User: Fold 3-phosphoshikimate 1-carboxyvinyltransferase from Candidatus Magnetominusculus xianensis.
Amino acid sequence: MRETTQKINSVTLKKHRALRGEMTPPPDKSISHRAVFFSSLAYGKSMVSNVLRAGDTNSTINAFRMLGVEIEEMPDGSLSIDGPGFMQLREPPDVIDCGNSGTTTRLLAGVLSGCRFFSVLTGDQSLRGRPMGRVIRPLHEMGAMIAARDINRYLPMSITGGGLKAITYKMPVASAQVKSAIVLAGLFADGETVIEEPVKSRDHTETMLKAYGADVCVDDLKITVKGGVELSPCDMTVPGDISSAAFFIAGALMVEGSELLIKDVGLNPTRTGFIDVIRKMGADVQVLDGRELSGEPVGSLLCKYTDKLSPITLSKEDIPSLIDEFPILCVLAARAGGVTQIRGASELRVKESDRISAMATELGKMGVKIKEYDDGVAIEGPVELRGSNNLQSYGDHRIAMALSIAAISAEGESVINGTEAVGISYPDFYDTLKGLTH
Ligand code: S3P
Assistant:
């Protein structure tokens, strides 16, 4: 398997001087996945510019190639995706390896449930430990034949799809991946599938599918999708990833003398919880040049060093719009004067790593007073972060990047092990960091 052959890297970092200048974050991971999914399902050729090329999105591209979709990289880096039509995908000749990518796995489970052939999904050690029952249950209800390890809980999972019927489904967890899996299965189902979310999660699937010609209606937390509608190709450009930008936003806020312009960032309101929260904490972040790009709001963010941050209290409703920013938010909270509470976030225990335990352990090594709860953390600040020569990424890209930003604002030297994980969403992370330091 991939994880036994991958080289484990470490990076040594010490306190940086100001982060200054401008940078553009990598393309949005969630939107890139979906652009490949929907273009592959459409009948005809779509051109997608600025697609993220990283571990996770390569898993999605490989999967659709195995399903018979022609995906070609153009000289300018954009992808030409020639879909055979959503009823014409072909049986994959081998097991599909989704690598580290939960989005690839869960969204594919929805698509494959609609396909009248046999397929098997697996992934790396982290992905094989992540819950799949949350997609298997509604897909079973729609009529897909799915079997998975440990009584239908974990990968590998086998799917024999086809003959789906529409359902009405009230989601027990707020998850854009689960919502998207059911919406995608709904495209193949007979009738109208209705999904209700407990809290609004990222809405790229709903927004983008409309541009591909799907019949999707959104009424607050309720999404209705009509089955049997052929998707048409669509040309689009992917905006920058706010979840990747978040590391540099935090770096600029914490490293004295910083002033950083982060350009062309996606600012979809279902993704900007981190910006709202850090502003409440007192951060100096301005949005410049706000506009629309392929149906998504984008803009540039001017971020300046802030010597005073206030603590914040977050609960269940606040989590979905900043779910991936938890690790870096913990680092910022250590700088705030008082106790920050982040609760209602038990989902973080089943991400690429257990992010609650990972951040509590690793920030503890850097001198942060952090208390772990089942569903979150309490962090008491302000503390002067202390370098540690034994920080671990747990194989998780966002833990590696959050600890790296902590390291550049800490006294002394830090060694972060397992930094190869950044290749999952941000292969150029360390080059960008080096280029911004003066
Ligand atoms: C994603 C949804 C979120 C997020 C993940 C990407 C997506 O996961 O954490 O990084 O692209 O739909 P959940 O839907 O499981 O919360």
Remarks:
- The first strand starts at residue 10 and ends at 14.
- The two ends are 41 Å apart (CA to CA).
- The chain has a mean pLDDT of 97.
- The chain has 14 helices and 23 strands.
